[in-house]
Amino acid sequence: MAYRRKDDDDDELSFSNEPIDCCVSIVDMVGSTRITANIRDSHKITKYYSIFINNMSVIGKKFGALISKFAGDSLVLYFPQTSNKSDKCAFKNVIECGITMLAAFNFINSKMSEEGLPSVGYRISSDYGRNDIARLHRSNTFDLFGSTVNICTEINRIATPNSMVIGDNLYQIIKTFPSFLEDYLYKVAGEHSIGDLKRAYPIYSIASKYAQLRQDQLMKYATESINTLRGNVSLIRNSSHSGNILLVDDDSDILLTYKSFLEAEGYNVDTFSDPESALKHFAQTDSSYYDLVLLDIRMPRLNGLQLFYRMKSIEMDTKVIFVSALEAADELLSMLPGIKFDKHIIKKPIGREPFLERINTMISEPLR
């Protein structure tokens, strides 16, 4: 990509000769200035911002986003692959990135609590449009300019805390993909006036269906309990059992092998090769049913990292072990603070005895 310099070679900023049409997302902390004003320890203030920004950055990069800049208490990302408007997967990544960031709420705030810090809330906005990319020469980084970033900044204020909104440009694209919106809950969230346009620009909220599914199931369960119904006619399962394990891996041979190990040890095991089906099942199941969840890291559609955040958003106390190859395990250690190799990760391949030893140890460990 070529960059045009101004007449003065010492200029810090130069713009690309080729503007890019793509999606932009802004993740903005809510009330951080007020919150940090009450934190006297400067080290804790930097910890407060770093926990949030680092986790958001990790998630964004996993979905193919590039970090444009950190603007105070907000993060600006863009998705180059969405320059191809027919690439459904690329646009899916934009939405899934935001949904996963929201799902990380409980995880991030558990880290805040461990550091003695107040909880953080945040809003996410995304839209599609023309962007000018500039290179900052002294730092060798890139920045975005143009109306798309400006609109994302404006519509971010329309989002309620811990929610995501998208602009009409993005909405008009994703609704052209068959069944794209079936996986989400969306509605008109408001309007925004852009410059001299006579018509207002529609803004939509978008959220995961699984969170609502979980609430619906809990309400159904409570209603049945109040009415003293006998038998379990809902999808929620009896939580009085112990030794229940959920195993998710897209490799059918791995599923069969690990399932046989665990069942021979006396565990009840539910297996899924499709991560989306596993998440739906988990959302429909009583939160105390599973003693442990085993996740492969690299899977299609929803990877292990996404599932981790989603499941933690449903039930924070869920115990999770990642099962994957060494290179993926090393990557995971750099992404999730608090994840320990000898506790939360099982490296493939692994023999029956060390596998069961790790499982037994994790299940017997009391919740913190």
Can you characterise this structure?
The chain is α/β, with parallel strands linked by helices and 368 residues long. The chain folds into 2 domains: 9-210, 2-Layer Sandwich (Alpha-Beta Plaits); 237-364, Rossmann fold (3-Layer(aba) Sandwich), CATH 3.40.50. 40% of the residues lie in helices and 26% in strands. The strands form 2 sheets. Strands 1, 2, 3, 4, 5, 6, 7, 8, 9 and 10 form a 10-stranded mixed β-sheet that branches. Strands 12-11-13-14-15 form a 5-stranded parallel β-sheet, with helices on both faces. α9 packs parallel to α10 (304-314). It is globular and about 65 Å long. The model is unreliable at 217-241 (pLDDT under 50).
How are the SSEs placed, and which strands pair?
Layout: E1 3-4, E2 13-16, E3 20-30, H1 32-37, H2 42-62, E4 66-71, E5 74-79, H3 88-103, H4 105-114, E6 121-136, E7 141-145, H5 147-156, E8 163-167, H6 168-174, E9 184-192, E10 201-208, H7 209-226, E11 244-248, H8 252-264, E12 268-272, H9 275-283, E13 292-296, H10 304-314, E14 320-324, H11 326-335, H12 341-344, E15 345-347, H13 352-364
Parallel strand pairs: 6-8, 11-12, 11-13, 13-14, 14-15
Antiparallel strand pairs: 1-2, 2-6, 3-5, 3-6, 4-5, 6-7, 8-10, 9-10
Helix pairs in contact: 2-3, 3-10, 9-10
